[in-house]
Amino acid sequence: MISIRRRRFVRLAATVAALALLTAPQPVVRAAAEGLYPTRPVRIVVPFAAGGVADITARLVADRLGVKLGSRFFVENQPGAGGIVAARSVIQAPPDGYTLALLSNGTAISVSLFKKLPFDPVKEFTPISTLGFFDFLFVVRADAPFKTMDDFIKAAKQSPGRFNVGTINLGSTQNLAAGVFRTAAGIDFVVIPHRGAPDLQISLLQGNLDLAIDSYSALKGNLADGKIRALAASGPLRSKITPDVPTLREDGLEVSIESWNALFAPAGTPPAVISTLNSALQDILADPALKKQLLELGVEVRGGTPDQLAARLRSDIEKWQAVIEASGIEKQ
Asked: I want to staple 232 with a disulfide (CB 3.0 to 4.6 A). Which of 63, 108, 149, 224 is the partner?
């Protein structure tokens, strides 16, 4: 009789334990609530190859997050068209704060550039904070006859379709910026996309292009060597790294184009984790040493709230959709 009662008690205890496990909070939620996040390494997936602005930005921030939060943060590069490979990797990961994504202005462009982007950056990601912003320079050869952007615009108006303007690949922010500039200035020129920054600059230096558009980080070598000159910058204000270069707005054009990099988490990530990361990032991004390092790449450090980042992503999706439709670029 005692044996039977004992067996019943053991079964009952096992059932209660199983129910307790099923109804217990998930470890990451409990850890976040108790201020324990992170308790293990955190992966930041970057949709670009190593060595670029986004990659360097992510690595500098990851190192400081590790020091700030007491766990290792590491970068994993997953380059691919439209950031699809990287996005899928993050979306498919548990929304526990241990897999994060670096998304960019290019993500907003991809929404309209692809016939059917296999992920929704607004619905499937939770914003954390912007990291940095950078603009683009409109450059010519050092011996070009144009001394100002106004010189180029006047010449283009006198000879419609004569000039060649180069950018990197079709559908890039630089490539779309050329179309925005052409419309705002009321001029006509041929836009020639290139495979990458090296090819673009070779074409410019060889005289195959009259003007090129790219980021400061890509152009700084030839700028420093005096082989090319910047006529204008695309940002809303003059950049601290190129304070002598006027903006397109100063030339009377209603054009403002900035690219950005930001940190996101999979949708469903606990708010406590997002708050922990955002708070840490605001402290990190205020560091003068980090600001100096990124400014040397042409990136101006600028953090923000998750709501601000969400609004920026939505507005950029709408903006680039209109530009892509007006440009007649065939969807991929």
From this structure: 149
Cα–Cα distances (Å) from 266 to 106, 119, 121, 273, in that order, read 18, 11, 10, 11
Residues 149 and 296 in one domain: no
| Total domains, the chain | 2
What is the b/e burial string over 179-201, where b = at least 16 CB atoms within 10 angstroms of the residue's CB?
bbbbebbebebebbbbeebeebb
Task: Give the range of the structural domain holding residue 53, as residue numbers without chain letter.
Answer: 31-134+258-327
DSSP 8-state assignment for residue 195: S
For 270-293, the pLDDT digits (tens) are 999 999 999 999 999 999 999 999
Q: Are residues 121 and 211 in the same domain?
A: no
Helices 288-295, 271-285: inter-axial angle, 10-degree rounding: 80
Tokens of 234: 């695309």
Q: How do residues 73-110 score in pLDDT, each as one tens digit?
A: 999 999 887 788 999 999 999 999 999 999 999 999 99
pLDDT at 19 (0 to 100): 37
User: By C-alpha distance, which of 85, 128, 74 is closest to 107?
Assistant: 85
